[in-house]
Amino acid sequence: MATLADVARRAGVSTATASRIINGSSKPVTEELRARVLAAVAELRYVPNAHAQMLARSNRNAVGVLVHDVSDPYFAEITRGLQRVATASGRLTIICNTFREPERELEYIDLLHAHQVAAIVVAGSGYLSSDAEQELDERMTAFEATGGRIAVIGRHHHASDAVLPANEEGGFLAGSHLFELGHTSVGVIAGPAALTTTADRLAGLHRAASAYGRSLNVVHSDFTRDGGEAATAELLAADPPVTAIAALNDSMAVGALAAMRTAGRLLSVIGYDDMPIARDVTPSLTSIRLPLTELGERAMQLALNPPPPNTPPRVETVSAELIRRESTWPVSQPR
Predict the structure, then answer these.
(1) Cβ neighbours, 10 Å, residue 12
(2) Which residue ranges traverse the bilayer (predicted)?
(3) Which run of H or of E encompasses 201?
């Protein structure tokens, strides 16, 4: 396999000159030299090293994306939007699964920084822990100091361009819907308590409970189908019994339906995010809709299109919407 030195020898130039021409450097060279180097590349069938090109070029062509778990339908939809914009801009997308581990996020930010990506989009929830957020903030700031761009989805400590889903508003809509149906004993199956997404959605539910003079029975678990099933089983054994369940994402809501089938009970259930599967389960799932693909698109657009110098971070809010289906009904009409 031909090397850069082989190309330089064939063209009669230094390796530095050959490298500048192959990697598209902005430093001027004569057309005669350029033609000789490119002819040598063709004759020797030289294949440039993509990583070396990325480091050599002043315009970085890769972007990093941090998600908690791309197999989660929530992040799959967001990633679709992120990649759509990145691909249209001719960028390579490097997707990193952090599995909700702050230490892993730090490692990936350092790795992406070392690879000199143009931008990093943090698509996963922020953390309530000030220590975890402080460390993440320091790594992001160091990346930005070398010319990188940061954009986040959701509430994070780091001051950067952000797209904020209306998580608190959506929680309020979910709670208000159940209380308006006459439910007085509502259980909540929530994700990990350490996440800002969990805290914000719960805050909206508590606001609704306060407005209607009600209380909530909250059980925390994983933001997964199995987590929802386990949390629901716990709620079904509660005293007094709940008549409705608010799940803080649709995967947990699907788990709630499974737990109820096992227990031979059927309660009103509302999910959150309105994933495609919400229409296909039985009963079809009432949910809080967030335009997840749009979230990803808008975050990547912010990351790739910097604002004018000395302007504050841009923050875009995406509203939530209640989508009523068959899984919720008035408490006076038990199923």
Answers:
(1) 12
(2) none
(3) helix 196-211
- pLDDT at res. 23: 72
**Of 318, 276, 323, 320, residue with least CA distance to 296:** 318
For the chain, give the number of residues: 335
For residue 276, the 8-state DSSP code is: G
Q: For residues 45 and 144, what is the distance between their CA atoms, to the nearest angstrom?
A: 38
Which residues, other chains included, contact 75 with Cβ-Cβ below 8 Å and sequence gap of 6+?
Answer: 67, 68, 69, 123, 124
Q: Give the model's pLDDT for residue 59.
A: 52
- How far is it, in rounded angstroms, from Cα 303 to Cα 29? 33
Of 40, 35, 47, 34, which is closest to residue 11 (Cα–Cα)?
40
Neighbours of 185 (CB within 10 A): 18
| pLDDT of res. 26 | 66
CA–CA separation, 202 vs 208, rounded Å? 10
Question: Where are the strands (E) in the chain, listed by range?
Answer: 62-67, 92-97, 119-122, 149-153, 161-165, 185-190, 215-220, 244-247, 268-270, 287-289, 315-318, 321-323
Sign of CA dihedral 76, 320, 234, 326: negative
- Taking 50 as the pLDDT cut, the residues of the chain under it are 58
pLDDT of 58 reads 47
Rounded Cα distance between 47 and 314, Å, is: 41
What is the per-residue pLDDT for 51?
Answer: 57
Q: What is d(CA 281, CA 277) in angstroms, rounded to the nearest whole number?
A: 6
Measure CA of the first residue to CA of the last residue in the chain; give whole Å.
71
Residues 17, 27: Cα–Cα separation, whole Å: 10
Q: Hey, what amino acid is at 325?
A: R
Distance CA 203, CA 109 (A): 30
| pTM (global) more than 0.70 | yes
Spatial distance between the Cα atoms of 247 and 223, rounded to a whole number of angstroms: 9
**Cα–Cα distance for residue pair 232/216, rounded to 1 Å:** 14
